[in-house]
Amino acid sequence: AQKVTQAQTEISVVEKEDVTLDCVYETRDTTYYLFWYKQPPSGELVFLIRRNSFDEQNEISGRYSWNFQKSTSSFNFTITASQVVDSAVYFCALSAVTGRRALTFGSGTRLQVQP
Amino acid sequence: KAGVTQTPRYLIKTRGQQVTLSCSPISGHRSVSWYQQTPGQGLQFLFEYFSETQRNKGNFPGRFSGRQFSNSRSEMNVSTLELGDSALYLCASSPGASSNNEQFFGPGTRLTVL
């Protein structure tokens, strides 16, 4: 069975603060993929990043960065210098190669960036 | 390229009725997945279709069904609606059926069951 846990239900920060969203996953598969999606108020899930289980390199894309640590089964997401437009619900998701290939989502973290 | 489109965007039904939701994937994408999003259960996988075949199914009752057409468009049907079926139904498309493929989501259909 697969499971994704996002323990932070809601985070509120002031603009320009850095914020880290935590994601912990469980899977018995040795090959799997991890994703982050953003869901703005409009409701559409926007793909942010994909990472496979063999690639533990951290990744940076503009103000976004991701820290993947297999040893702790975590795939955390950091927004540097947050902006009001970053306000959204962020979901971490897992997809295994074997068996059901559907995305298993965490419960999401609602990020509110105050001006 | 046009994104994933879903129709209708909003729907109100009463208990016992049935409903059909439609999803048009991104051009060239052959895999379509459906997810249900509710405040209580979060995002849950319903089913996935690839080349008109259902490849995976989530843990939902048989009242939930779907199909995919030769042009990759997909429909999902919910029969004998219950209040608990009120949710945002999201469709996602991807080029193939590999777990490696990112899924591109549509805006969703918000179903309210009264």
Explain this structure to me?
The complex is a heterodimer of chains A (about 120) and B (about 110). Chain A has strands spanning about 5, 10-15, 20, 25, 30-40, 45-50, 60, 65-70, 75-80, 90-95, 105, 110-115. Chain A has about 120 residues and is an all-beta fold. In chain A, the strands form three sheets. In chain A, strands 2, 5, 6, 10, 11 and 12 form a six-stranded mixed beta sheet that branches. In chain A, strands 3-9-8-7 form a four-stranded antiparallel beta sheet, with no helix packed on it. Chain A has a two-stranded antiparallel sheet with strand order 1-4. Chain A is globular and about 45 Å long. Chain A starts with a strand and ends with a strand. The model of chain A has no long low-confidence stretch (mean pLDDT about 90). With about 110 residues, chain B is mostly beta strands. Chain B has strands at about 5, 10-15, 20-25, 30-40, 40-50, 55, 65-70, 75-80, 85-95, 105, 110-114. In chain B, strands 2, 4, 5, 6, 9, 10 and 11 form a seven-stranded mixed beta sheet that branches. In chain B, a hairpin with a 3-residue loop joins strand 4 (about 30-40) and strand 5. The mean pLDDT of chain B is about 95. Classes of the chains: A mainly beta (about 120), B mainly beta (about 110). At the A-B interface, strand 5, strand 6, strand 10 and strand 11 of A face strand 5, strand 9 and strand 10 of B.
State the gist of this model.
By secondary structure, chain A is an all-beta fold. Chain A has strands spanning 3-5, 10-14, 19-21, 24-26, 32-39, 46-52, 59-61, 64-69, 74-79, 88-96, 104-105, 109-114. Chain A is 0% helix and 53% strand.
How would the blueprint of this fold be written?
The complex is a heterodimer of chains A (115) and B (114).
Chain A lengths: L2 E3 L4 E5 L4 E3 L2 E3 L5 E8 L6 E7 L6 E3 L2 E6 L4 E6 L8 E9 L7 E2 L3 E6 L1
Chain B lengths: L4 E3 L2 E4 L5 E6 L6 E8 L3 E9 L2 E5 L6 E5 L5 E5 L8 E8 L9 E2 L3 E5 L1
Parallel strand pairs in B: 2-11
Antiparallel strand pairs in B: 1-3, 3-8, 4-5, 4-9, 5-6, 7-8, 9-10, 9-11
